[in-house]
Amino acid sequence: xxxxxxxxRAARVRPGPGLLAPLAATVVLVLFGSCxxxxxxxxxxxxxxYGGGGAxxxxxxxxxxxxxxxxxxxNPIGWLLLSWALLVPVVGIALLYSVLDYRIHHxxxxxxxxxxIAQAIAFLVAASSGLAVLLFPDGVLPSRRWxxxxxxxxxxxxxxxxxxxxxxxxxxxxxxxx
Length: 178
Fold this sequence. Notes:
By secondary structure, the protein is mostly helical. The chain contains 6 helices and no strands. The longest helix is centred in the middle third of the chain and has 29 residues, at 76-104.
């Protein structure tokens, strides 16, 4: 920047919501790259067919979330879409890492049991996508009557989370792991 006297001073860049959104989108791309690497290592292409639609949806969600979060940082829709896009590859990485650990390396890799339990965060994908739909388009519920629907939805997500974590913890505790 140039001041009136003609001297140049450095522009100060402050981290904030506007800079956080591109960082989140970059992390999404890196996580999907990690998924592709694990997919090649495991050669479990059945999982690729199973998760392909979710991956495409998550990448579109990341693009839309990036635009909304950059232009309207106070609108939770953009952040919910970005969180959805971040969680999909995390679940994929956990699933493919556990396949790599237990099917190929027979449990010799570190954090294999953690990867099995981490697959249970799939409920957060449903929670963030459902909340994005409920809060669309301006980030608030349409009326007070929708509060009950939102709370019921979040209660269902919590119950599903408890079920998933219990199921995954039981699977991780089994010897040998299945």
